Each structure stands twice: as structure tokens, then as C-alpha cells.
What we know:
The complex is a heterodimer.
Chain A: E1 5-7, E2 10-13, E3 19-24, E4 31-37, E5 44-50, E6 53-57, E7 64-68, E8 74-78, E9 87-94, E10 105-106, E11 110-114
Parallel strand pairs in A: 2-11
Antiparallel strand pairs in A: 1-3, 3-8, 4-5, 4-9, 5-6, 7-8, 9-10, 9-11
Chain B: E1 4-7, E2 10-14, E3 19-25, E4 31-37, E5 43-49, E6 52-56, E7 59-64, E8 69-74, E9 83-90, E10 97-99, E11 103-108
Parallel strand pairs in B: 2-11
Antiparallel strand pairs in B: 1-3, 3-8, 4-5, 4-9, 6-7, 7-8, 9-10, 9-11
Amino acid sequence: DAGVTQSPTHLIKTRGQQVTLRCSPKSGHDTVSWYQQALGQGPQFIFQYYEEEERQRGNFPDRFSGHQFPNYSSELNVNALLLGDSALYLCASSLAPLAGSGELFFGEGSRLTVL
Amino acid sequence: KNEVEQSPQNLTAQEGEFITINCSYSVGISALHWLQQHPGGGIVSLFMLSSGKKKHGRLIATINIQEKHSSLHITASHPRDSAVYICAVLVGGADGLTFGKGTHLIIQP
């Protein structure tokens, strides 16, 4: 049983570019949430998808957007990249429709460096 | 605004010692998570609790809702327990989880 998989694992972009990160949830899970973790900090909640809709959102600008597909996989898109967007981006899946109300299964993350 | 504070920030102990990591939060919550993060980034969920106490192997998590405080205990610590331990809380559910900054634990052989 595959757990949560994320791609790519590492990537380097320059300021102003756009990036797409991908997440496949654990088999049977229909809820995906995304988190940003800056170096030395705890993660911060970006948003959560359930039934192909964004259900909850943290304090992130509109440059951060996402999508969930019918197979429950998800994408995180970040436009107009800033240096401060450099971070580890984590995806988590669960069976609970409310992010954090059920056990979370995390992927290994995508480490984004913006130069 | 909910604040999550963890203590200590860093902890170095000898193998076999009893470890306690603390988490305090400022508003009422509906759930609290303890997470473990190894170098490289992957996070593993250890516990989710809303009251009382849970135990899994050498790990014990407790929560006191009235005092807005939770503790994670590790008995008979081992070098493989070395990791960052993160507390995260859910308030009502509208804004997702709020995370602490983590406690960096090193267990020396």
C-alpha cells in the first residue's frame, strides 16, 4: 500500500517564475492538505481539498492556488515566486473532511529553492 | 489568534533517559496532534488526542484541556528517537492546524 507520494522532491526556481507541486494521497484517502515549512520553523497550513474543492485556507496570498482531481491527487501552484517562498512543501492526506480532525499521513515533501 | 508554544526548543539526553516535551496553546481546541520529523523532512503522525492519555510502545501523550497543555513522554529513550517533535492543534476547524516550532531531540548513546 503506497503512502503519500510527492513530486518533485527538490527543485530550484528563480524569482517571478511559477511552480507546480504534486501529491498523491494514501490509497483510500479523499482529503488532501498542503503545508509550507520554512527552515527551522514549524509547518504552516496553506489549504485543504475535499471532493475537488478548496474547503479551508490558511493565511496565504492568492499566488498560492491548488487543485484536486477526481482520483483525489492534488496540485499546489505558486505564481510569481518570491525568495521567501523557499521552503519544504508538505502534503498530507486523511479520511477526515476537516483538515486536522483525523489522523494525517504526510509525504516526504518537495523542497523548493527560489533564487 | 491561537499560539502554540513548545518547550524545550532543544533537548540532548543520554540513551535510556525519560524524556518529556511540553506543548501549550492559548485557545480552546478540538484536537491536538504530536508529530515526529526526521532529517530530510518526512513527518510521521504519533498521536491525535482530544482528552486524557494515549500510549503507543514507549511513547505516551497526555492532554489537560482545562490547562491548555499537552506533554509527550518517551520512556527508555534510544538514539533512533532523535528527531524533531512537533505539536499541532485544531481550533474549531476553520483555519486548519496551527503548529508549534518543534523540539529538536538528540539522544546520545
